[in-house]
Write a structure and sequence with these properties.
37% of the residues lie in helices and 15% in strands. It is an alpha/beta fold. It has one domain: Alpha-Beta Barrel (TIM Barrel). Strand 4, helix 2 and strand 5 form a beta-alpha-beta unit. Helix 4 crosses helix 6. The radius of gyration is 19 Å and the shape is globular. The chain binds flavin mononucleotide (FMN).
């Protein structure tokens, strides 16, 4: 494949992407305490679209406010958000980019906000096991939310099946200790996802609307068989009509080298399914991107470079690397103050340098 292939168009169903670069879901912490979209949030997406990113995946939005994972998380179903979501998708489309909305239930992440009321597949010290009624409500809320996402103009939805959010906890035996039909075998652990996908109707099953999933290719348990299990999950997702799979890993924050972190895992998945594969984790320059594409990865997703570099797309085009060192300070700075890279602020930079002395 030629080195310019990253700039070639790519099509998933009838959704045409102008290049292979995706902004992976990134929680900007730019919602109000009530979960409402702010103008600053919309500006972030306008800037990403104007910079030439072909597909933007939004921050992880909460389906159920009572199960959100942080206080500045956007709660998509708040009525006040409807007009703001319409504006968001319109602004991104003006720049000929596409936008997909990532949604989730917080799972154990919600315990930081709602303590023991956080719902998880199995009880833990911090969380409460979901009843069958809770599971049914959750499935119905997914369906209702996906319809809303289509109505307000998104090009698709991403189910967050990674990083310890609720659905990933169902999939991973490390978290899912259930003995009913939602636990045990691969099919049982996957059942909740299957029930969501099989309840989608023709309104959302449209060739211009994508249903994609972000999955982990590594488990917190370190279980070496986990990838094999996830490959089985990917086959089930494909059977249920998923349009693309984004491959990540639960432990992405700890990596600094072996870039891109999950390439080998993604290639193993790619061999077993025929849906497009999006790979995320560690890409910092065009050589790494072209190398992954030449090996068969369809789309390249990134998060931290878009925080670290004001116009990362321009840098890529000029063959310049991102200045992101994967220091992860953006996670903590985002939560406490306005979201930016430590390199943009003298005080943060000093704190960082002292910390790393
Ligand atoms: C500040 C921050 C917030 C993130 N929020 C989300 C999120 O809402 N949903 C998600 O799936 N991943 C989230 N991620 C993970 C990224 O999508 C991505 O998987 C990870 O950062 C690895 O890619 P990178 O090396 O290009 O940063 C976040 C990452 C960062 C740095």
């Amino acid at each position: 494949m030629k080195s310019s292939s990253v700039w070639k168009k790519f099509r998933i169903k009838d959704v045409e992407l102008k290049n292979r670069i995706v902004r992976s879901a990134t929680n900007e912490h730019l919602g109000t305490r009530n979960g409402i979209i702010t103008d600053s949030f919309i500006d972030v997406y306008k800037n990403l679209a104007n910079s030439g990113v072909s597909l933007i995946i939004t921050s992880n939005m909460a389906i159920d406010k009572s199960q959100r994972s942080d206080l500045a998380q956007i709660c998509i179903n708040e009525p006040e958000n409807i007009e703001k979501l319409k504006l968001l998708t319109k602004e991104v489309h003006k720049a000929s980019s596409k936008i997909i909305c990532q949604i989730s239930y917080g799972g154990h992440h919600a315990s930081k906000i709602v303590a023991k009321s956080a719902m998880t597949p199995s009880t833990t010290e911090e969380t409460t096991e979901m009843t069958l009624d809770d599971i049914n409500n959750c499935i119905n809320n997914y369906i209702k939310t996906i319809k809303l996402i289509k109505k307000v103009g998104f090009d698709g939805v991403e189910l967050h099946l990674a990083h310890g959010y609720l659905l990933s906890e169902f999939l991973d035996p490390f978290y899912n200790k259930r003995t009913d039909k939602y636990g045990g075998t691969t099919e049982n652990r996957y059942r909740i996802v299957h029930q969501i996908l099989s309840k989608l109707n023709n309104f959302v099953l449209d060739s211009h609307f994508l249903i994609i999933a972000k999955i982990d290719s590594t488990s917190k348990s370190g279980d070496s068989l986990f990838l094999e299990e996830q490959i089985n999950i990917c086959k089930l997702l494909e059977k249920d009509g998923i349009d693309a799979i984004e491959v990540s890993g639960c432990d992405f924050k700890k990596y600094k080298k072996d870039i891109p972190y999950f390439l080998n895992n993604a290639l193993k998945i790619k061999e077993e399914v025929s849906v497009p594969i999006i790979l995320v984790g560690g890409f910092r320059n065009i050589t790494q991107i072209n190398n992954a594409i030449s090996k068969g990865i369809d789309l390249i997703a990134m998060s931290r470079p878009f925080i670290a570099d004001k116009n990362f797309m321009e840098k890529l085009k000029k063959n310049q690397a991102s200045r992101c060192t994967s220091c992860n300070s953006c996670f903590y700075i985002y939560k406490t103050r306005f979201k930016h890279c430590i390199f943009d602020n003298e005080i943060d930079l000093q704190l960082y340098e002292n910390f790393h002395k």
